[in-house]
Amino acid sequence: MHNQGKSIREISRELKIGTKKVRVWIKNWNSEGRLCNKKRGRKRKKMCNQLKYFIEQETKLHRSSVFIEKKKFEKKIMIWGAIAHDVQTDLIIINGTVNTECYIHDIIKKSNVIQLANSEYGEFKWIFQQDGARPHTSKKTLTYLKQRCNVLDPCPPNSPDLNPIENLWSIMDTKLKNCNPKNEEEFIKIITNVWDTLSWKTLENLVISMYKRIDLVIEREGESINSFY
User: Where would I find the Tc1-like transposase DDE domain in this sequence (predicted)?
Assistant: First the structure.
C-alpha cells in the first residue's frame, strides 16, 4: 500500500490499526515482501549457533545428536513421536488435553525417549528439541528433563523450518489421504501402522537435514528458510 502512494494515516484507517504499528511494518518490510522480525531472527540464529557448536563438539555427521519431537493431527486426538539417528520411539496416542503431568508421565516416560537416546548416544550426549507448547516448557517439565538430558531451551516459536519432524508429519498425511477409517479405533490402528512402517532412510534424511537447516538460518541472519524445506 505504501509503495502505491498511500500515506501512513490512510493505511492506518484502512487496516484499522495504529499509525505507529504501520510505521514499524513499513520499516521491517524486506525486499522479498515479508515482514522481518529482527528479534525473532536473532533468537533463531542464536539457537542454530548453539546447536551447531554442540554438534561439532559432541558428534560426527553420521551420528546426529539432535532429538526432535512434535505434536499434530486431530483436535481430539494428539499424537506424539520422536526421531533421531537410528532411534524412533513408539507413536503415543493421547485422547483429550495434555497438561504437564500428562506430558511427563504419559508421553516422556511411556515413550522411553530418554532411555532410548541414552542407550544410543550416552547420557547428556544428545539434545532434546521440543516445540513451545505450555506442557513442554513448564517449570516442572523443564526441571524434569534437564535432570536427565540436554534440552534446547528456549526453542524459538513459529519455527517449523527448524523442526524436520514437521516434514515427517506431511509425509504421513500423504500416506493417510486414501485411508477412510470408520471410527477412532480404526484410525488409531492405521496411523500407528503408518508410523511403524516409515523407512529408516526417510527418518535418516530428515535428521541429517538439520545440519543444512542450521547453516542456512545462520547464513540468512535468522530469517525463515521455509522456501528450502
Answer: 69-186
Q: What 3-state class would DSSP assign to 82? A: strand
Q: Give the count of beta carbons closer than 10 Å to the beta carbon of residue 101.
A: 12
Whether the CB-CB separation of 8 and 1 falls below 8 Å is answered with no
170-210: per-residue pLDDT in tens? Answer: 999 999 988 888 888 999 999 999 999 999 999 999 999 99
pLDDT per residue as tens digits for the range 110-164: 999 999 999 999 999 999 998 888 999 999 999 999 999 999 887 777 788 888 8
For residue 1, what is its C-alpha cell? 500500500
For strand 87-88 and strand 92-95, is the pairing parallel, antiparallel, or unpaired?
Answer: unpaired
Do 184 and 77 contact (CB within 8 A), yes or no?
A: yes
Backbone phi and psi for residue 81, each to the nearest 5 degrees, phi listed first: -155, 160
Map residue 222 onto helix, strand or coil. Answer: coil
Paired with 151 in beta bridges are 128
DSSP 8-state secondary structure symbol assigned to residue 68: E
Give yes or no for a contact between 68 and 163, defined as CB atoms under 8 angstroms apart: yes
Please tell me the number of Cα atoms within 13 Å of 112 on its side-chain side. Answer: 8
120-149 burial code (b ≥16 CB/10 A, e <16): bbeeebbbbbbbeeebbbbeebbebbeebb
The C-alpha cell at 83 is 526421531
Rounded Cα distance, 210 and 221, in Å? 17
Nearest-5° angle of CA 221, CA 37, CA 53? 35
Question: What is the rounded CA–CA span in Å between residue 215 and residue 49?
Answer: 8
